[in-house]
């Protein structure tokens, strides 16, 4: 049986791995668009900037 500590550790690793692809920091002078993997692809209507 898997202990609670091992389960929490594995979940933490999964979150850590996916957080690199989830959060992007835009630096001054940069702009970005949102890619929705399961929601229609590239959203060029909304341009994000700092």
Tell me what you see in this structure.
The chain has a domain at 25-50. The protein is 38% helix and 26% strand. The protein has one helix at 4-22, and strands at residues 32-36, 41-48. A hairpin with a 4-residue loop joins strand 1 (32-36) and strand 2 (41-48). The mean pLDDT is 85.
Entry summary:
This protein is α+β, with helices and mostly antiparallel strands and 50 residues long. The protein contains one helix and two strands. It has a domain of 26 residues.
- Assembly status: single chain
Average predicted local confidence, pLDDT: 85
State the order of secondary-structure elements, H for helix, E for strand. Answer: HEE
Tell me the number of strands.
Answer: 2
Uncertain regions spanning at least 5 consecutive residues:
none
Helix content: 25-40%
């Amino acid at each position: 049986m898997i202990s609670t500590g091992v389960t929490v550790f594995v979940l933490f690793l999964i979150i850590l791995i996916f957080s690199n692809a989830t959060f992007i920091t835009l630096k001054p002078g940069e702009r970005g668009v949102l890619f929705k993997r399961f929601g229609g692809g590239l959203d060029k209507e909304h341009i994000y900037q700092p």
